[in-house]
Amino acid sequence: SEGAMMDNRFATALVIACVLSLISTIYMAASIGTDFWYEYHTLSPAENVSEAGRSIWEEFVSKDADEKTYTDALFRCNGTVGLWRRCITVPKNSHWYSPPETDMTTNCISFSLSDQFVEKYIEPGNHNSGTDLNRTYLWRLQFLLPFVSIGLMCFGALIGLCACACRSLYPAIATGVLHFLAGLCTLGLVGCYVAGIELLHRKLPLPEDVRGEFGWSFCLACVSAPLQFMAAALFIWAARTNRKEFTLLKAYRVA
């Protein structure tokens, strides 16, 4: 009965760890796929935009839109930014004579792969000001780290499945370590994103009538990291304690 008690404890720990792991993977995937990492709220009314709306939109989507161009558009048009896309809200029909109460529509454009790796300049938008290495590498890391994090968790899940098939708890330690590393990557991602936004706003300060805040996509990534650490701790605890008790049981039987 003691053995059964032991097994129940480990089974419970492993089930909880698997559930935490699954939730954190879903949160991570959702945060990568959504556009609300950072949001700008423009307090001035929309009529200022309707006149310049068309030209802002054309600049925003053009292939040559540099960082300063699209950041200014984000400031002016209630923009939201994700890891992969940037969005602005503009009037549907941008004629100068349209009334201010026009329907607003949100339009998004994706960052291309080259956008993710392009150099950031010391003065955003000014190619002659030299490369800002800090911001360039922070941006590249915030693009790569979430994929590393999800990759580690999926690899951990595969090892876990093999462990179930082999009826062994030893691989659970490896799964735990991989989840711990995934948690570190997620923390790194959150840190890089916050630092990147801070540095950008030092170069391009928010206008007086614009408020910026981290959005819910960012919060999902923040919640994902502690879940990964908790799952890691449970996997490692179950495997180590089980190994210890198994050794004690064997010694007891031999004696």
UniProtKB/TrEMBL annotation:
Q: Name one Pfam family in it.
A: Claudin_2
Segments crossing the lipid bilayer: 12-30, 143-165, 177-196, 216-239
Assigned keywords, A-Z: Membrane, Transmembrane, Transmembrane helix
Alphabetical list of InterPro entries matching this protein: CLDN1 (IPR042356), PMP22/EMP/MP20/Claudin (IPR004031)
Protein's membrane topology: Multi-pass membrane protein
Is Nucleotidyltransferase a UniProt keyword of this protein?
A: no
| GO cellular component annotations of the record | membrane
Give the UniProt subcellular location, in the record's own words. Answer: Membrane
Primary location: membrane
PANTHER family per the record? Answer: CLAUDIN DOMAIN-CONTAINING PROTEIN 1
Can you say what this protein is called?
Answer: CLDN1 protein
Q: Which organism is it from?
A: Erythrocercus mccallii
